Amino acid sequence: MFSRDKWNEIIESLSSNWFRTILTAFGVFWGIFILVILLAAGRGLENGVKQGFGGMATNSMFMWAQTPSKPYKGLPKGRRYNFKTGDVTAIKDNVGGLKYVSPRNQLGGFGGSNNVVRGLKSGAFNVYGDYPEIINQQPMDITSGRFLNYNDVDEKRKVAVIGEAVKSTMYDNGEEVLGSYIKISGVNFQVIGTYKKKGNGGGNPEEAQKEIYVPFTAFSQAFNRGDLVGWMAITADNQHSITNLKSQIFEVIKTRHSIHPEDSRAIGNFDLFEEFNKINGLFIALKAVAYFVGILILLSGVIGISNIMLIVVKERTNEIGVRRALGATPWSIRGQILLESIFLTIISGMTGIIAATGLLMLVNSFLQNTDTSEMMFINPSVDLGVVITALLILIFSGLLAGLIPAQNAIKIKPVDALRTE
Description:
cell membrane, Macrolide_Exporter_MacB, ABC transport system permease protein, twelve-stranded mixed beta sheet, MacB_PCD, elongated, membrane
């Protein structure tokens, strides 16, 4: 079947009318080209969106106290309550599968009045009282100095880690930052490090750098928070989903604060894991759409090849009759037509893959010379699995395109074929 004579015959058949062959092959070329580009674009968008999370611990949720909507144990609805540091210990002791339970307090913000002063300069920034593990939940690059540690927490050190945007606002170019002091709401804190956020989780990338981190204990002492906790960042381990564990966490809080077990409004939360899964589901749907659209376009090309092969069979009726009269079997005739169809499909399809790969290389070359840190589209690409899948689709398409013409070819009787002019 793969003799030299057969391949010469295939080349001669396809090259007898180059213009027709090229027009026929273009449909398959365009279909596979669009398929690869759509899949690569989906990957580029996915990479950009995930970059926005900046390596955040996505198996996390953020939880804060709201007002109960139901009376319970003689306590009225609409009352105010606050999380306490004891709640953190209770959650750790009673809920398994958790990796981090980080209490957090917050002061000020870029939307409020100026709360940070240094010399004649001032600014409004978010100030967080945190534990050291927060850097594992909301990763950041430490650009100088260090981040908070447990010695800072245990000794209630008044130290701070500031964002690059805070540094540019409060300090002159070339001015030494480490070891200097900033005044937060009237209390002096020594700067021990600077950071740059890896991502912003979909928030404002500029404001993500306008934050200040201080030890939770020092924050509570300096700003008279006592044992109050503003909110918590809670992360599950790799064997558990925070979405499945949060009902147990809520139960611990409701029990400790005498909240009705069925009150769904008393505890506010943002489930990052749930939202991240929705985004992943969106990209799965986009990939399915890409395959659907690409295969539909490819199918139109396959139909074109099938039509041309029918014409080719009609033109070669006399030849087929001679071959049948000389003893050619139906399978050899069928195999010849199928082989021509598969060959044309694969050549045009692989040309489409090469063209799409070349375009992606140009796009990635352009993106490499561009700052993509805040872009929602980076590194559009396809993996080897996509190429193998495309090749299998091409082989199947070639068989499909040549099936009907091949069947028509073997139905021709040698005597009738020899009579055809």
